[in-house]
Recover the amino acids of this structure.
């Protein structure tokens, strides 16, 4: 007897079949523009077979103990080999899976801590898993192989709890940023930016560069497409970094290509440029590596995470991307649950946490209404889909720090006539208000979705239970589900092309360089790498890895709550609270609860929250904040 794997029939395969094309010729239908052809039987495919974690309860206890200062396991991290010995599949289980795959003619190329890299032809895969593989491509995306119909695991793999994600075809994740286009802020434009990296450091009270710069921290930025070194240099040159410090401009420490990566593309590298510049701007001394994957499909994202975790070379991982968590739900997949794919992600994050790795992700940019409803995927050109409640993955994992955020207001810049024009960017206030959107097509299926709202995505996970650390504050505890986000920082608002105009004037943005020009940018893709830069400073200050930092963040929130919450004495004001906001569904409710679904526990006073000393970063373009 053979049994169905979790990915027996996929959402994307169903979508593609609505616009099925014979021999590569597109046919009209359902308003979709997908090209689907049978895969060549001779095509060689590499994919991963994941095996379950052993002793899950023991792992959960270890993860909690690693974050408990009174435990003998506090901050004692495992190596991948140690993790495998304690929690990986038994050697006999791996051998049985290897034997079954080899019996099907497949080749085992690598055995990881709890997975196997496998290679074979399309014909061999189709025969072993009783399926047909189709090549599916939508305009502007790379082609991918998707199982058409059942994907059935042999009994030997089913008995070992194996999972294959590669051919599931869930729609690709998307980056969490919007490009506002070219800007030329010769000086800061107003109270709401555009902000340069050093403006943000003064506003959020970073420590002095002369005390901490991130040296010793190793950061991985997981994203598709390369960046231009000249853009990073231009960012630092604009702020006179070398002139002020006497040091060379910071650069990337390296590039790691996963499955070949993707080249620099003037139309697609914007997100990678943003992430690298935000992290380096916050921690110029950190060793930052761009982990470049071909696209944001589950198979390539998982390949990137797997390499990062198995190499054990990085302390923090930034992920400025995500996808609607509900896309894995039964209602979106003909009654079949694909939440097992989220489990695959989550157990990788657990392994990384046990090794001391901190994962940080953008919470999303769709406000409280984070997902299109099921009618969007129906293929009915007359459908009138709407956005509904939902959060994004990977931010929804309890083993990831989800970063939402706000519009930031700082000290009004000096008049151009002021001589000298000293730059000052002191914190004034924030608002967490989103922007209503015109109907638009979020996944490029040819159907517009109405009711959208720009802003930091947050709410309750549809799948993950409330983690222990969230019991410290009034969050999702009453609902039994993981609450998103955990923390907030500058996000910005009024996305070009989809906002209902006019937007409120109190909307902010940041400035980066992309393809040789200054671009304005908004999104939680700003706030996530910004927080990663701050965490790199804590790693330098403490001299070691942090693991799942959420335990610490919620402990600090509890201390502030007990000290008076938003009215706590200065030394306990770890987070900015009392931030008004509305995201299309949720209010910040700052008069009722100190946690909310837009800013999480609040936005940080970085020095106080992360215990980074008494000397603050001063004005931008000065020795303490170059």
């Amino acid at each position: 007897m053979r049994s169905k794997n979790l990915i027996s029939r996929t959402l994307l395969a169903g979508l593609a079949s609505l616009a099925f094309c014979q021999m590569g010729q597109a046919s009209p239908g359902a308003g979709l523009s997908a090209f689907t052809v049978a895969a060549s039987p001779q095509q060689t495919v590499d994919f991963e077979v994941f095996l379950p974690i052993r002793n899950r309860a023991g792992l959960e206890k270890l993860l909690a103990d690693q974050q408990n200062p009174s435990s003998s396991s506090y901050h004692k991290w495992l190596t991948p080999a140690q993790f495998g010995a304690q929690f990986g599949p038994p050697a006999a289980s791996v051998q049985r899976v290897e034997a079954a795959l080899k019996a099907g003619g497949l080749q085992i190329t690598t055995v990881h801590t709890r997975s196997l890299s496998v290679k074979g032809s399309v014909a061999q895969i189709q025969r072993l898993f009783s399926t047909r593989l189709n090549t599916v491509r939508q305009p502007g995306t790379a082609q991918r192989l998707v199982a058409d119909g059942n994907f059935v695991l042999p009994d030997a793999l089913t008995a070992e709890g194996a999972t294959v994600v590669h051919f599931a075809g869930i729609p690709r994740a998307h980056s969490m940023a919007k490009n506002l286009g070219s800007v030329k802020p010769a000086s800061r434009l107003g109270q709401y930016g555009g902000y340069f990296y050093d403006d943000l450091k003064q506003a959020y009270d970073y420590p002095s560069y002369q005390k901490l710069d991130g040296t010793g921290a190793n950061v991985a930025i997981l994203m598709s497409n390369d960046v231009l070194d000249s853009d990073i240099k231009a960012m630092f040159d604009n702020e006179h970094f070398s002139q002020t410090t006497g040091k060379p401009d910071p650069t990337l420490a390296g590039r790691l290509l996963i499955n070949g990566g993707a080249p620099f593309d003037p139309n697609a590298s914007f997100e990678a440029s943003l992430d690298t510049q935000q992290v380096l701007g916050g921690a110029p001394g950190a060793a930052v590596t761009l982990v470049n994957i071909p696209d944001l499909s589950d198979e390539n994202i998982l390949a990137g995470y797997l390499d990062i975790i198995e190499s054990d070379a990085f302390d923090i991982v930034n992920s400025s991307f995500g996808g609607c968590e509900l896309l894995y739900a039964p209602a979106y997949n003909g009654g079949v649950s694909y939440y097992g794919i989220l489990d695959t992600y989550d157990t990788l994050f657990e392994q990384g946490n046990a090794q001391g790795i901190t994962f940080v992700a953008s919470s999303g940019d769709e406000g409280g209404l984070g997902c299109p409803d099921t009618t969007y995927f129906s293929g009915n050109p007359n459908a009138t889909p709407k956005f509904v409640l939902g959060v994004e993955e990977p931010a929804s994992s309890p083993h990831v720090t989800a970063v939402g955020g706000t519009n930031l207001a700082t000290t009004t810049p000096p008049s151009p006539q002021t001589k000298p024009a000293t730059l000052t960017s002191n914190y004034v206030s924030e608002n967490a208000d989103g922007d209503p959107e015109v109907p638009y097509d979020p996944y490029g299926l040819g159907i517009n979705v109405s009711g959208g709202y720009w802003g930091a995505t947050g709410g309750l996970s549809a799948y993950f239970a409330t983690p222990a650390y969230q019991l410290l504050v009034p969050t999702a505890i009453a609902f039994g589900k993981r609450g998103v986000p955990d923390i907030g920082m500058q996000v910005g608002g009024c996305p070009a092309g989809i906002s209902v105009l006019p937007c409120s004037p109190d909307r902010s943005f940041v400035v980066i360089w992309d393809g040789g020009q200054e671009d304005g940018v908004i999104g939680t893709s700003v706030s996530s790498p910004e927080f990663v830069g701050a965490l790199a400073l804590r790693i330098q200050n403490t001299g070691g890895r942090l693991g799942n930092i959420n335990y610490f963040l919620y402990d600090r929130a509890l201390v502030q709550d007990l000290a008076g919450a938003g009215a706590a004495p200065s030394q306990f004001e770890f987070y900015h609270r009392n931030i008004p906001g509305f995201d299309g569904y949720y209010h910040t409710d700052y008069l009722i609860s100190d946690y909310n679904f837009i800013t999480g526990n609040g936005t940080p006073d970085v020095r106080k929250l992360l215990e980074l000393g008494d000397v603050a970063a001063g004005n931008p373009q000065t020795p303490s904040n170059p």
User: Anything to note?
Assistant: The longest strand covers residues 401-410. Residues 1-33 have pLDDT under 50 and may be disordered.
